[in-house]
Amino acid sequence: MPVDYSSLPADSLVLVTGANGFLGSHIAHALLQAGHRVRGTVRSPAKCAWLRAHLDAAHGPGRFSLVPVPDMAAPAAFVDAVRGVDAVAHVASVMGDLCPDPNAVIPVVVRGVTNALDAAAGERRVKAFVYTSSSTAAYSPKPGAGGDVGQETWNEETVKEAWAPPPYEPSRTGKVYGASKMVAEKAVWDWVKKKEKEGEVGFRVNAVLPNVNFGRSLDVKNQGHPTTSGWAFDLATGRLADRMWEAVKPQYYVNVEDTALIHVAALTRPDIDRQRIYAFAGEFNWNTLLHALRKLYPERKFYEDREGLGHDLSRIVDAGKTEELLRDVSGRGWKSLEESLKENLEDLGW
Fold first, then answer.
1. What is the pLDDT of residues 191-223, one digit of tens each?
2. Is the bond preceding 226 in cis, omega lying within 30 degrees of 0?
3. pTM of structure
């Protein structure tokens, strides 16, 4: 039976916060491909003129616009940006300038998402709201550890570690990021519960929890290899920092384009509501990546395998359901690790 997308008809206007980021730019692109218009928030539209030029060239002028939100934690930060939109994808975070001090990160991320929700609630046209959460909101991977990861799995451990007494060393950065995502996503569901008690929320609310995103940058000339796409690039080119071998535990990957398409499904499917949607395609560790690189580029030399890395044995309860959503919007399942790495590195010309 065909999926009913009538809750967000073609040519709807969707707000994408953090539209210049690795994932945010792909979400904007995917929504435009699906026939919608997109308004993207960035701190400085002048510095992100490349994004409008790229999307205008791909989808035609007038389909994508940029608006400034210099501080998402400021009161009423998104009120102007949300006027007239039909849906909101809140992707913006503080990943790019993250620091190991939880006081400087976690409250900003929480205020950002609650500001976006409050703004959406003030716009009668809004039919759907999707928050870009993270795997770290649910759990921190540990080699050899298992267990089910599902709708009620929360990473309380990383919050405790993030808020431990100072000093705030650089090694705490990942914990602070994970805690910011967990606390912010909890704030989303607390907001929903509060609104339900007061009456109606007025729109569907979902969270997408991707694990490590690999794949091509939308515009590598202007974006480079940001965030986790840089891990694959550094591994392939022999630039991986020594600390990364230990810091990045075995976990799951997903192609950034698949994550973007899952956001489209969460925004448009009328039957998807109040869901935590896990974007986890397959398990990997550093050796898995190296094996894939050697298969893709047999003539090149890469790092030797590392001993004792282990594997993430967690079972993602709803991974199959997420892949069904992906098939609904794209006609295919998860992109493979090899395909994701090849796309991640295509600008090298190998």
1. 999 999 998 899 999 999 999 999 999 999 999
2. no
3. 0.97
Q: Which two tokens stand for residue 245?
A: 């071998």
Nearest Cα neighbor of 26 from 223, 212, 203, 174 is 223
With a CB cutoff of 8 Å and minimum separation 6, the contacts of 341 are 214, 232, 236, 289, 292, 293, 296
Whether the CB-CB separation of 262 and 326 falls below 8 Å is answered with yes
Q: What is the pLDDT of residue 7?
A: 80
Given a cut of 70, is residue 1 above it in pLDDT?
no
CATH match for 13-216+254-280+317-334 among 3.40.109.10, 3.40.50.1820, 3.40.50.720, 3.40.50.11420: 3.40.50.720
* Cα Dmax for the chain: 63
Distance, in Å, from the CA atom of 214 to the CA atom of 6, rounded to the nearest integer, reads 31
Distance CA 53, CA 212 (A): 28
332 to 35, 153, 328, 335, 339: CA distances (angstroms):
19, 28, 8, 8, 14
- CA 116 – CA 317 distance, rounded (Å): 29
Residues 131, 189: contact at Cβ < 8 Å? no
Runs of H (alpha helix) within the chain: 22-33, 49-59, 102-121, 156-162, 173-198, 220-223, 229-236, 242-247, 256-268, 286-296, 319-330, 337-344
